Structure formats: C-alpha cells, structure tokens
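Reopening this one. Same input as before:
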Amino acid sequence: MRKKPYHIANENTEVLNEPASAYGQVNYYTLATRSVSKNYIKHLLKTSRLTLNELIAIIPISMDTYKRKTEFNTSVTEKILEIEEVYGKGLHVFGEGFYRWMDTNNVALGGIIPKSLLVNSFGIRRLLDEIGRIEHGILA
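Same output, byte for byte:
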C-alpha cells in the first residue's frame, strides 16, 4: 500500500478558541479543519466590529444555533477564518480607518459597501485583492 505524499489533519482534532495569530504562523488551511468555539467568534466580533446579526447573516448558522451551541463545525470555522483574514489584512494596511472603508460605498468595487462582499468566498477574494492593491499603491 502506498503512503500518501501529504498529511491532512483530522477534522475536529482541536477546537479553535483564540485568534488565528495565537497559533503561530497562520496556516488557514490547517486551522480550517478544526471546530471553532463561541469565544473565538466573540473575539472576531470585537475585532471586526460586526454586529452579531451581521455575522449571523454571513456564516452558515442561525441565531438559534449560535445561542444554543458552544462549538461549531468546519464550515463555520472556514467562514470565520476568511473574515478574520480580511480584517487582519485590512487593519494592517489601513489602521483604524479600515472600519470606515468597510462601511463606505467603494467605486473600485462597483459602488458597493465592501462589508457586503463578506457573504461568499468570491467576495472575500475580491476584498483581499483590493486591499492588496491598496497596500502596494495600485489604485487603478
């Protein structure tokens, strides 16, 4: 029998309780294979300044599920990590002004509010690309 050339961490081997940066070099692929705790989500709410209702509209759970559970599956983890990545990079590039940027209509993004792109992976990729362009001074 042939050995696999790579190792994939088992799902739910650990529950994420602290921000991704607390786990050392941020490897979102590995972290996304774990469950996420309600405390981790509360940290993201503080960091992102999203309301709980805004976050629940983005992540794949209902408000009732959020209230009832203390740990959430990997699909929630992945979404939480994506949002955390956007806010981490944005705050690094913009500083506190990032919060205002996320809430203001943006011509470069088609006249929409950047925060509205958090609903899916394509929007998140678009936000990360735009933040990266701004970071490197490419505004057009």
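So the earlier flakiness isn't reproducible anymore. For the record, The CA atoms of residues 41 and 80 lie 7 Å apart.
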